[in-house]
Design a protein that fits this description.
- This protein is mainly beta and 170 residues long.
- It has a domain of 101 residues: Immunoglobulin-like (Sandwich).
- The chain is built from one helix and eight strands; from the N terminus they run αββββββββ.
Length: 170
């Protein structure tokens, strides 16, 4: 009596195929056993666990400001949440192909580390440099902040626009 080795499909699916169907992969692949599934770990009581130290607790660590950048026919628009930052605490530098936003969000009330249950807000300095997809008119650009949302509107430069110059005599 010969024992038929399970085919590749049978090993893959865990089922058996009736009949003498040969599988070309039988000789090429070694037979391996699948490891048993690990038992689920017991959940820790998160309310009693101490929070892990955050990266913003390290002096000199700067956060990166998340932004949305989109365009219309005539403008490139940048939006960023800057809740808790006064407009005079923001520094926005614009060149024809790049925007840099810098600022700082300071904690108004100091809370000791062990007194935190959850600490997810970012406190400290942040910055973001955004390379623009096309050149913008620096002089006509504007920025406004309302309800913690910074909006920067950058008018696109029209490279197709041409003007004619008259040559003056003398």
């Amino acid at each position: 009596m010969t024992i038929k080795k399970p085919s590749f499909f049978e090993r893959l699916s865990g089922s058996s195929v009736s009949g003498d169907v040969l599988d070309a992969f039988d000789e090429e692949l070694p037979t391996t056993t699948m490891p048993a599934r690990e038992k689920p770990r017991a959940r820790t009581n998160e309310s009693t666990a101490r929070p892990a130290p955050l990266d913003d607790d390290i002096p000199g660590n700067e956060g990166q400001l998340p932004v949305d950048v989109n365009q219309t026919v005539s403008d490139i628009i940048i939006r960023a949440f800057v809740a808790g930052v006064r407009p005079d605490e923001l520094n926005i530098s614009i060149s024809r192909d790049m925007v840099e936003i810098e600022g700082s969000r300071m904690e108004r009330e100091q809370v000791a580390g062990p007194d935190y249950f959850t600490r997810e807000l970012f406190w400290g300095s942040f910055s973001r440099t955004i390379m623009l997809p096309q050149e913008v008119d620096v002089e006509a650009s504007s920025a406004s902040a309302k309800d913690g949302l910074l909006t920067i509107i950058l008018p696109k430069l029209d490279k197709a626009r041409q003007t004619k110059l008259r040559v003056k005599a003398g």
